[in-house]
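Known limitations

Files may contain more than one protein. Parsers should not assume a single record per file. Below, a two-record file is shown to illustrate correct handling: read the sequence, read the token line, then continue until end of file.
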Amino acid sequence: MNQLFDRMLRAAKLDSMLYEEVEHDPGATGQALAVVLLSAAAAGLGSPMGGGLGTMTVNAIIAIVSWFVWSGIVYLIGTRLLPEPQTEADYGQLLRTIGFSSAPGVLRVVGFIPVLGWAVSLIAQVWMLAAMVIAVRQALDYKGTGRAIVVCLIGWVVMIVVSVVLGGMIAL
């Protein structure tokens, strides 16, 4: 457990060496899942709307599915559409690094506090995005950050389209 929290702290500090470490540690996949779940739980607990166990369960399922889908989208874009000559990655590496990029999301637990909560939640969202860019840069072995930003932006647009389509199908 100590290793998990140490890794989460390093991920939140945007430590590129942490992302390299978990990229190459297949045993860290379970820890990455724990980070995704802790971040989702914090968002649920901090929600100003409140939420019971049912809401928390749904949030956890959505977080896990989103993590898997997002990692797959980034993998395809980063390795097929926008690879650099040295890019060498597999889906598991992106799954682990992107999972750890959720670490700053635990701050969302204070989201229920008026005024302070929304500000901290916004900061956590931006912080997670910055962590994800570093995670993607490291996992895809990019020389610079610019290409990682572009991969994340394209992936974000694709994820929105997928979410809207799935949301529309569910609403039917």
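...continuing to the second record:
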Amino acid sequence: MLKKRDNRDKEEVKSILSPELKVEGNIYAQGKVRIDGVVEGNVEGDFLIFGESAKVNGNIKAEKVIVMGNINGDIVAKEAQIKSSAKLKGSVDVKELSVEEGASVEGNLRCGEFTEREAQNSSLEKSSQ
């Protein structure tokens, strides 16, 4: 079954962190962002692309994530694509996941409707406190 393309795929990249740049600290981004450099901290945003030269030591939270580089941390997203050049060490918690042949992944995985139920239960617990 062919999946309908997301309109976000067509939008242009709003910001780029080049391979020569290293960030120490957390990043919060809106729109489509590409990271090719080094990040020592967490990254949160709408649509995050980690290029082949990207190196991240921190957790990632986004609507959509594409990983081609090295990630040492957990990923929480609605959709994640792990490309063949990716090296990922950490837990992955997503609604939709694709992993290309050749990708290196080490960690726990939760995918599909389980993530929706967990998010709903988490919201209910917070609202009852």
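Parsers that stop after the first record will miss the second one. For reference, the second record is described as follows. Residues 113-127 form the longest helix (15 residues).
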